[in-house]
Write a structure and sequence with these properties.
With 203 residues, this protein is mainly β. The chain has one helix spanning 198-201; strands spanning 7-10, 13-16, 26-27, 30-31, 40-43, 49-56, 78-83, 86-94, 97-106, 109-119, 126-130, 154-159, 162-173, 182-184, 188-193. The longest helix has 4 residues, at 198-201.
Amino acid sequence: IGGPAGVYLGNGWVLTANHVIVVDPEFQSVIYPVVPGSVVQLENPDSSLADLKVFRIDPSPNLGLLPIRASTPTTNTVVTYVARGLTRGAATSWNGIDGYLWGTSTGMRWGTNKVTATGTPNNTLAFSSNFTQIPGGGSTANEAMGANGDSGGAAFIKNGTTWELAGVLTAIGPFQNQPAQTALYGNVTWTADLAQYRSQLID
């Protein structure tokens, strides 16, 4: 969506983080016009506004409905992230903590992590994952975390044989005074928990 990502839900609706600027999105190299006045920001159970929004496109891709997860993932559930922010750069370290510089280009890519906790960053019901160094600490084989530009990207969880949309990437949690443009082991990725907003998405 002009840089960051969005998720096509079906029936002409696109989901992304509320802080992502809405422009005509591109799916499979085709640009689809946004329907004027169709943007709706999702609400929390207390009626406050979350960092999530949907909007309509017309015409729309010839794609089916995307299954949305009905329950909050438990600790250690493996999630697969798909987003298009900055790519990984060279290895680096800071204060004895290893990690990577953010790259200078963006691109669609994927990676995995495990759910560690729940919280409310940016007033949004969410679950988190910690960027963990391979091979120790219970990390996944394709360990990943969010970077600049990943907002609006998808988090999928496999339920049996079905891939369900479990969340939308909304924020990251670096260490205090961590150098900019870096991803360090121990950093947190926050993903809006769509189970908490599912009733608004399937109406």
